[in-house]
Amino acid sequence: METKTCNESRVVKTNRIFPSDVNDHNTLFGGKLMSDIDMTASISATRHSRNAVVTASTDSVDFLAPITPEDSVCLESYVSWTGNSSMEVFVKVTAENLMTGNRRIAATAFLTFVALDESGRPTSVPKVIPETEEEKKLNETAGFRADKRKEHRKQSKELAAFFSTNRPWER
Length: 171
Description:
- The model has no long low-confidence stretch (mean pLDDT about 95).
- The chain has about 170 residues and is an alpha+beta fold.
- A hairpin with a 5-residue loop joins β5 and β6.
- The protein contains 3 helices and 7 strands, in the order ββαβββββαα.
- The chain is globular and about 50 Å long.
- The protein has helices at about 30-50, 135-140, 140-160; strands at about 5, 10-15, 50-65, 70-80, 85-95, 105-115, 125-130.
- It has a 5-stranded antiparallel beta sheet. Strands 1-7 form a two-stranded parallel sheet.
């Protein structure tokens, strides 16, 4: 089976924060950051698999520090673990105060993508080889996260069975 390093899927994207990007608290709107996280992660998954990919889940997004208009925001993503057709992508969000140079981890996220072949069916992906200490730590703890994802998905499907598909006025 083909292998690739985490670095081969690495994506780095830096943005300024503009007034249209912030919420009532003058901090970056969470939905904007989540969109950027998914976009960046999808590029990493596509680079790793060299196939079309779909987001299977956003496993977690942890907002750790506010991002303000004085900051730039840097998203760094890479494939941290692979299953057969699935890929866990880690995204690290670093905010930098552009006046002081102070940098802080503002958010982290884990997303799962599935690679698809030409007919839209899941297809196998290369195994990933971690090289740095950060990559190794994420890779060795990925099995735990994968087990949690499977259990969460099972619970979500069980809960969805109780939901109605009727229109709200048809209850």
